[in-house]
Amino acid sequence: MARPTLQNAPLARSAMAYVLAGGRGSRLMELTDRRAKPAIYFGGKSRIIDFALSNAINSGIRRIGVATQYQAHSLIRHMQRGWNFLRQERNESFDVLPASQRVSETMWYLGTADAVFQNLDIIEAYDTRHIIILAGDHVYKQDYEVMLQQHVDAGADVTVGCLEVPREEASAFGVMHVDEKDNIISFLEKPKDPPPMPGRPDKALASMGIYVFETKFLIDQLRRDAADPNSAHDFGKDIIPYIVKHGKAVAHHFSRSCVRSDMETAPYWRDVGTVDAYWEANVDLTGVVPELDLYDRDWPIWTYAEITPPAKFVHDDEGRRGQAISSLVSGGCIISGSSLRRALLFTGVRVNSYGSIENGVILPYVEVGRSARLKNVVIDSHTRIPEGLVVGEDPEFDAKRFRRTEKGICLITQSMIDRLSN
């Protein structure tokens, strides 16, 4: 595994990971009507938040807090089921921190910085040396120990995790303008003309929303920011620009700490924040050698593992053959006389006879009726696809019935199916 090696003792054991998981992710449309973006299913078994949490555990961090807000029930339930193995008697902790109006009865979390500030008493009680702020809605594998080590070696006030992106695409991000030593000169929020990296005029450094601080320093900054009536109380808008101007801010390149198996050729990071991006990232996993290796046993993605029977394929008649080609099929699925091609099925999906699914992302406990033909679809959990439904062959008809994206992907939910019969 292409993982950086370190000579020093791990800093992760004296660090806390604080995961910001309160965002809705409105560009995922109906997928986030009932759940926050970090709770969205990904990869057949996991949820998006499992990647940030697994990175923390695999890096050696044993103090974790997760701030939730929007539609938090399914996210909290998932974490209670899958992340309850950390034990206080081993100096470990896992705290779920819903917006609880701790500062004022009229105030929920106002911004990302406020989501940390409102829980300062919990952070102070753990008395950790460092704190790493993480976004809970991205898919990637990263060793945070490497980033912590750079922070200490550089004597930085804040270290910002950064992606190298094509300069023409950087306008969608917060962009770091850095010098030759990766000191951040300025932080620009979605600039029209992103500053290039030194010596690389075609690339820019985009913020990943990952920040390392000494805990005491961050506490001081959050208290200063909370007292500022003109602040939006946000890391990207307020905290980081202030430190860039008044302290020492350093950029950390994701390529230096990304974790790759022998099967992964390039650093992998995805913001699956649109239906198209979500569909593409999941369907890509069905490839012979996908860009993201979920089979890497050296860096497992921890999650709640539901107990299910094995997947089952039945019938072997012409036109009624249970089969899957270039597909991922999770436990509890039954493929009864239908064919799958480049499909990803989550737990407990039932596909009945004489149908087909191609380029499909099928969330848990969907039932697909007989003779249904589905192509280029994302189907929300617990949806019942009626017998004979055809999707992906008539774009205009699909757009009238379902949520159809510009790239031709159809998102289907149970409420959309219910409207078909009205």
- The CATH superfamily of the largest domain is known as Spore Coat Polysaccharide Biosynthesis Protein SpsA, Chain A
CATH architecture of the largest domain: Alpha-Beta Complex
| Approximate strand percentage | 25-35%
Alpha-carbon Rg, integer: 23 Å
| Global geometry | globular
How many beta strands in the DSSP annotation? 28
Largest sheet: number of strands, sense, barrel closure? 9 strands, mixed
Portion of residues in helices? 10-25%
- According to CATH, the fold-level topology of the largest domain is Spore Coat Polysaccharide Biosynthesis Protein SpsA, Chain A
Structural class, by secondary structure, is alpha/beta
Sequence stretches where pLDDT stays below 50 over 5 or more residues:
none
Q: How far is the N terminus from the C terminus? A: 55 Å
CATH C-level label of the largest domain: Alpha Beta
Number of DSSP helices? 10
Provide the residue-averaged pLDDT: 92
Number of domains: 2
Enzyme class: transferase
Site (Could play a key role in the communication between the regulatory and the substrate sites): 69, 108
Keywords: ATP-binding, Carbohydrate metabolism, Glycogen biosynthesis, Glycogen metabolism, Nucleotide-binding, Nucleotidyltransferase, Transferase
EC number: 2.7.7.27
